[in-house]
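Sample pair:
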Amino acid sequence: MTWTPGHVEVTAGDGSIVAQRDNGREAFDRSFTGQWDPLNLAYFNGYAMWTYHATPFVFGEPGYEARDVPTIDGELDTLRGVAVRFPENVHSHTQEQRFYFGSDGLLRRHDYTVDVWADAPAAHFISDYIDVDGLKYPTSPQRIHVKTRRHSGPRFQRSHDRTVGLPLF
């Protein structure tokens, strides 16, 4: 799979292109029950992985706007919240996302809505960091919580190793 904000393609082992699409974000059925084809999934995975690896490091780049939001209680710590508005030309889950940091300065939670999937709320809970040559990496599976309740607002459901309800092919 190769992803750029404007193009996504799936290739075979020999390098031949199996499928490709320009403007992948525009190809989604944005309903909660809409089905995703392999190119939808490739586009989603591309921007999601970019987001998870680039944040919070890109927040100092031009066009990003950050502001403090109220703290929340984490499992072991009170988490400092920062809402970040991404530039319009950056492909990610949604334009404004919230990041929560522990007293150790490490990212502990990431909240957002999934624009391409009915604006579904999601949260990653990040823990069990190890130090590798001065860089910190989480070792536990990222826990992704997605759940909506009609008429009563979002509800998060704990899932230790998978996305709950993510529409696939």
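The longest helix spans residues 38-54.
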